[in-house]
Structures are given as C-alpha cells and as structure tokens.
Design a protein that fits this description.
Blueprint: E1 2-3, E2 33-41, E3 57-63, E4 66-70, E5 77-82, E6 90-94, E7 97-101, E8 109-110, E9 121-125, E10 128-136, E11 139-143, E12 151-152, E13 164-169, E14 177-181, E15 184-188, E16 196-200, E17 205-210, E18 218-222, E19 227-230, E20 238-239, E21 251-254, E22 262-266, E23 270-274, E24 282-283, E25 294-299, E26 306-310, E27 314-318, E28 326-329, E29 333-342
Parallel strand pairs: 1-4
Antiparallel strand pairs: 2-3, 2-29, 3-4, 5-6, 6-7, 7-8, 9-10, 10-11, 11-12, 13-14, 14-15, 15-16, 17-18, 18-19, 19-20, 21-22, 22-23, 23-24, 25-26, 26-27, 27-28
C-alpha cells in the first residue's frame, strides 16, 4: 500500500523531526530506525515535479507494508544519504544531479551543476558530516560545505575507467572512503585529496558495504567477478567461495543483529543468503514471484526482517531469513536503494 501525503512545514512537535507527517504510533514503538526507499512506479511520470498523480522519488515507511511519498515527484531517484546530526538534512542522487533538502523534504534544491549529472551514489562522511561525496559516470565530486559547492576530486583515479557506481564512507574513520568503479575499488584516506586502487577488476563494482559489527570487514559485489571480502579495512580483498560469478550481483546486506547473516541480490540468482558468516550460500526464492528478478536487498536493523525489491513488482519481506516471503508494499514499483535512518538523528 502507498499513500501520497503532502509534507507540512516543520516546526510543530514531531514535525521538528524528519518528515513531520510521521505521527506517533504509525510505526512500531520498538523501531529505532526509519526506512527510506528510492524508487519509481512503472506508470509514473517522467517529468521532474509533475503533478500528474504519480509518485516517484523518495518514500518513507509509515507502518508495516505502507510507505508515503516524500516531497518532490522525481522520475529516477537512485540513492539517499542523511546528515547524522540532523536527519531533516538529506541528499538524493538522481539523474539531474544531487537534490538536497534541509527541512525533511518540505523544500528541495538541485545543488550540483550542469556537468555533474546522472549521480550513481552519494555518501555523507559520518565523522565529518559537512563533507558529501557523489559518484558520477565520469568520476567523483565532493562538497565540503553541505552541498553548497562541489569540486572534482579524482587524483589517483584513472583517466579512463573511473565510472563510479558506489560510494561508501567509513563509519569510524574521518576522511576514509571506498568507491566502486568499472576498473575496481579505490580508497582515499585523506578525504578524496588522493586515491589509490586496492582491487583491480575488469568488471564494474556494483556495491560495497561495511560490517556493522567489525569496521575492518567490508563486502563487495560485482558484475561478473562474484563477491569479495576484506578483513583489513578494504586494503586487500579475497573472492568469496560459493557465490556464483557468471552474472551480475547487485548489492549486499549485513544483518546488524546477527553477524552470521548476509544477503546478496541478483537478477539471475534471486536472493542468496548465508547464515554462517559467508561460508555457504543458499538461494532463497521460494514464495517470490516466478521471475524473481531481485534488484535490491536489505535487512531491517531493528527486527532482522529480510527485504527484497523485485524489479517492477515491489517489495517482499521475510521474517525467517528467506524461507518464506510475504508482500511488503510498494506494489508495481522498482526500488533502487534502501536506507535505514536512526530515529535519534531527528
């Protein structure tokens, strides 16, 4: 189920938090995170800001299986990142560039220029939240003033092969960022003043994630080189046995409540699950649509529920880590990313 609810201006009671339209009790009181989605519906508008009745862009969970559209109607929002000091401030990577809101989605501004478009991924440095990184088809830009201005930051990246699919900031070390490109994984430890390649690939790196349990552990997935793990903060990488590598793997998720549980999304293989820390992997697709083209996966940090986004068919959720599935809302949509935001950030 989806509802389209206009966002009121902030400043009254709960409206001082992110998205003032979230009323007490609409989400379980036990939840400590809000879930945001970037997505679109198949019959949605292709015009930014259109008032044709469609709802595309950013959505927030207001109850189990129910999501509300946040602010601007945008045809392709790809990822979102939030300021850990104030979750009313967040940035959305989209076709036109980077959209920013300072008031929880009530008003928006396109903060990048004409030559900084088709942003693939965006990340705020949690240790330096004024610094924002955005991956582009031709490299990377960084803002050090909350998105007011942007500069290219590509020293050490190759002249060719710097298409940047994913950007992830280290959650514990300031200025430390990993990016996934078409030629491998690159690392900066000086806030993008310089980069070095820590993994060479012939295929695009589609996702990189840091463990919520051990900050030295990172996982990545690729177009056709399988899945890889690093246990030294991303300096060296090893291929994960048991994960197929012939076809694309789109993203990887950690279970914040159980370090043994991991999940990988794939158009070809569906949902791959591990419950032994990545030693073995099993497809978990029984109960999903027949063409289980799993586009993205995520694990709820509050209750361990496993989510998958099936392309063009919306969300499905499992409370037993993929053994059984039930519809999870957003029917008919295609979801690009999941973002869980601590409520304490409000």
């Amino acid at each position: 189920m989806i509802t389209s609810t206009p966002l009121p201006r902030l400043g009254l009671g709960l409206a001082a938090g992110l998205l003032g339209f979230l009323l007490a009790g609409t989400v379980s009181v036990a939840a400590t995170h809000d879930l945001y989605l970037c997505g679109a519906f198949n019959n949605g508008s292709r015009v930014m800001g259109s008032k044709d009745g469609s709802s595309n862009g950013v959505f927030v969970r207001t109850a189990p299986g129910t999501f509300s559209h946040v602010g601007l109607n945008y045809p392709l929002a790809i990822s979102a990142t939030f300021d850990p000091r104030d979750a009313r401030v967040f940035y959305v990577a989209c076709l036109s560039g980077v959209l920013r809101t300072l008031d929880g989605g009530a008003t928006w501004r396109l903060v990048t220029g004409w030559d900084e478009t088709e942003v693939k991924s965006i990340a705020v440095d949690p240790q330096e939240p004024d610094t924002v990184y955005a991956g582009l088809p031709d490299g990377l830009v960084v803002s050090r003033d909350r998105g007011q201005t942007w500069q290219r930051a590509e020293r050490g990246l190759p002249e060719r092969g710097k298409y940047t699919q994913v950007v992830q900031a280290d959650r514990v070390k300031r200025g430390r960022v990993l990016i996934g490109c078409e030629t491998g994984i690159y690392l900066t430890e000086d806030a993008a003043k310089s980069w070095r390649r820590v993994l060479a690939t012939q295929e695009t790196v589609d996702d990189i994630q840091q463990s919520p349990h051990d900050p030295k552990v990172w996982l990545s997935v690729t177009q056709s080189a399988g899945a890889l793990i690093s246990r030294d903060g991303g300096l060296t990488w090893q291929k994960i046995a048991g994960v197929p590598s012939e076809k694309a793997l789109y993203n990887v998720a950690f279970d914040a409540r159980n370090a043994q549980r991991l999940a990988i999304a794939s158009w070809t293989y569906g949902l791959l699950a591990s419950e032994d820390g990545g030693k073995t992997w099993t497809p978990r697709v029984t109960g999903l649509p027949e063409k289980s083209r799993v586009w993205r996966t995520a694990i709820d940090p509050d209750n361990g529920d496993l989510y998958v986004a099936v392309f063009g068919q919306g969300l499905f959720v499992s409370s037993d880590f993929g053994l059984t599935w039930r519809p999870g809302g957003m029917e008919g949509s295609s979801i690009q990313t999941f973002t869980f935001v601590p409520k304490s950030g409000r």
